[in-house]
Design goal:
Layout: H1 3-20, H2 26-40, H3 45-68, H4 75-97
């Protein structure tokens, strides 16, 4: 893994933490993570699939709320987002620890 990839993974962690702390909105987190994910260019197919699945849960929850005209997520969507963020953090931490 390159230093640039490590830096991008660490930035993912800080953005996930910012979201959890209320310093970043979901509509900001989603494209930020997508950009960093694309830029890391990690070859591990299983890791990429896991990341994509959890990131997709964020995107689906947000899109559903927009479609319903909600200003905030419902309880079920909040749980899905919380679980997805936890999974994303775990994936990123595990990838960094394998370095």
């Amino acid at each position: 893994m390159t230093d640039d990839q490590k830096t991008k993974l660490k930035l993912m962690l800080s953005q996930l933490a910012a979201f959890e702390n209320g310093a970043m909105a979901l509509d900001t987190l989603i494209p930020e993570l997508e950009g960093l994910f694309s830029a890391t260019a990690l070859a591990d197919a299983d890791w990429r699939e896991g990341f994509r699945d959890s990131w997709g849960d964020l995107e689906i929850s947000y899109a559903f709320a927009l479609d319903m005209g909600w200003k905030s997520l419902d309880e079920e969507s909040e749980k899905l987002v919380s679980d997805a963020v936890a999974k994303l953090k775990t994936l990123v931490v595990e990838k960094l620890q394998k370095v």
